[in-house]
Amino acid sequence: MTIRHLLGIGAFVNLLVATLLVSSEQNATGADWPQYRGPQRDGISGDRGLLQEWPAGGPKLLWRYSEAGLGYAGPAIVGDRLYTAGGRGDSEYVFALDLKTAEGGKPRELWSTRVGPLFTWKGNSWNAGPNVTPTVDGDLIYTLGGFGDLVCVEAATGKERWRVNLPGDLGGAVNPIGGGLEEPTPLGWGYAAAPLVDGDKLICVPGGKKGLLAALDKTTGKVLWRSAEVTDQASYSSPLAVDVGGVRQYIQATNKGIVGVAAADGKRLWSYDRSPAYDDVVIATPVFHDNAVYSSVGFDQGCDLARLIVQGQSIAAEKVYSTKVVQSRDGGIVRVREHLYGYSEKGGWICQEFKTGKIVWSEAEALGRGSLTLADGRLYCCAEKGGVVALVEPSPEGWKEHGRLKLPQESKQRRPSGGLWTHPVIANGRLYIRDQEFVYCYDVKK
């Protein structure tokens, strides 16, 4: 082998190493947030290289956008674009912001597309506008309005590809238990289950006599199947896609409990029927871990863990515990190894053992009721009142705070009984907080 060959090999190796280093850096420092509760729908961001301790006063505020409109839809972040939805005037819109134009000012709106009429009704003091974070899948975006308008648009232009109205076209209904709109079609506090893309299917939750869940062709909106054996009215909880015993399935929380249906045809695989049934709004998305499903509901309801047992060709759900020690309303629950973290209406911020349900600690004074997201070993806990976000280390030893920030201004458009209920989003070194018309962006990179 000649020196020239060796030099050529050396140059190739150097180029390969450089390429791998660049790729590694990109993977380590950046992570998109394409849907509600993040890439895996577990409230966990894949972002790395983030501040572990905040300076006094919190991280740097990069920009504020003040025209997002009414609603609780969170941001979906893919690349240099932010997608969300909001009520403007008497309609709901899905829209895109160009994050490249945001530094030093505010992001430029690229397009907006009407989804449907503004969800509200006379005397509603709780919410108005869309509840659902858009789901981004490649060059398509799926969004759901409060009245059940499920719309697919092009990510680049906002051009509508197809639409389906869940109550009108699919016979859907939302469980009005706990209040909300009941006539002429039960819609409660408006549709809130975020659409789920799984392969070629779009999974939605119309609810009602034709089936709780529906699978649509994600490119055309054509109905592929309905879960005809499961006819609960829709809750406000979003579905999960999991594999149990080699079987792909979708898990959905309802007022009766938790159910799993086959991804292939929507047939019921198992159900966990809680006794007594939840008699108020079911909002939190279940937590799936080690073939077990955890669900929690606020308003004095409680939490449950059901273990899924594979028995030949069938699956059975077995109760592990059912208790009132944790009552999570709308702030979500995040699992870190074998512990759960979140806000409980009983006890405040909590750490709970996943397998046993035992409360490890609770903290009621440090921060009021709120929502949370995990990123790079820290919990971002956002209070629903007061505009405060705390950076907390998830630890079974107790509440370990590493700084906090206060929003410059809270929404003045919120309904009187509402709060800052949109969960924090961490993507590509940025923290996003949505409070109705406001979207705040903070720099949380090291």
Verbal overview:
The chain is 7% helix and 42% strand. Among the domains are: 152 residues, Lipocalin (Beta Barrel); 160 residues, Lipocalin (Beta Barrel). The chain contains 2 helices and 33 strands. Strand 20 and strand 21 form a beta hairpin. The strands form 8 sheets. The protein has a 5-stranded mixed β-sheet, with no helix packed on it. Strands 2-33-32-31 form a 4-stranded antiparallel β-sheet, with no helix packed on it.
Say how many strands there are. Answer: 33
What do we call the CATH topology of the domain at 75-130 and 132-235? Lipocalin
Strand content: 35-45%
Largest sheet data: 5 strands, mixed
CATH class call of the domain at 75-130 and 132-235: Mainly Beta
Write down the overall mean pLDDT.
93
Q: Give the end-to-end Cα distance, rounded to a whole number of Å.
A: 46 Å
Rg from Cα:
22 Å
DSSP helical segment count: 2
- Approximate shape: globular
Strand order of the largest sheet: 1-27-28-29-30
| Share of helical residues | under 10%
Show unreliable segments: 1-29
So, CATH architecture of the domain at 75-130 and 132-235? Beta Barrel
By secondary-structure content and strand pairing, the structural class works out as: mainly beta
